[in-house]
Amino acid sequence: MSAEHFTAGGKKILYVDDEESLALLGEEFLSDLDYQVTCAFGSKQALSLFQNAEDGFDLVVTDETMPGMSGIQLAQELYRISPETPVILCSGHLLTMAEEGMAKTNIKAVLIKTDVCAKLPSLLEEFLC
């Protein structure tokens, strides 16, 4: 399916980063692509938002390195709540799908943060179709 045929259709995304400016930038970027985006400024807030979301989220994009709970640990918690919700993990350094702890998650892709703008839209199209 090509990008011109895919419409976000208001799919709901939870965007998680402990750096508030990056979370807000992600929210703006994805909102411009017609997604309904909720920002969380850290794992604990993200987990709370996820648990309390009335209609749930269609996908979660999360930073890996955050205080208190890493992105992989967050993905493990999200998997316990909703194993069908896909997660995209973003990191400031190179990670692979073989990172420790990823087996009990629904992490579908790992992105380096510098690739988010270039690669995230096609990943969203792939996982939200």
What fraction strand? Answer: 15-25%
What is the CA-CA span between the terminal residues?
9 Å
**Shape field:** globular
**CATH fold naming:** Rossmann fold
Largest sheet: 5 strands, parallel
CATH superfamily membership: Response regulator
**N-to-C order of helices and strands:** EHEHEHEEH
Could you provide a short overview of the structure?
By secondary structure, the protein is of the alpha/beta class. The chain has helices at about 20-30, 45-50, 70-80, 115-129, and strands spanning about 10-15, 35-40, 60-65, 85-90, 105-110.
What does this structure look like?
The protein is α/β, with parallel strands linked by helices. It has one domain: Rossmann fold (3-Layer(aba) Sandwich). 36% of the residues lie in helices and 20% in strands. The protein contains four helices and five strands, in the order E-H-E-H-E-H-E-E-H. The protein has a five-stranded parallel β-sheet with strand order 2-1-3-4-5, with helices on both faces. Strand 3, helix 3 and strand 4 form a beta-alpha-beta unit. Helix 2 runs parallel beside helix 3. The N and C termini lie close together (9 Å). The N terminus is likely disordered.
What structural keywords apply?
single chain, 129 residues, alpha/beta, Rossmann fold, 5-stranded parallel beta sheet, disordered N terminus
Layout: helices, strands, pairs:
Blueprint: E1 12-16, H1 20-32, E2 36-40, H2 43-52, E3 59-63, H3 71-81, E4 87-91, E5 107-112, H4 116-128
Parallel strand pairs: 1-2, 1-3, 3-4, 4-5
Helix pairs in contact: 2-3
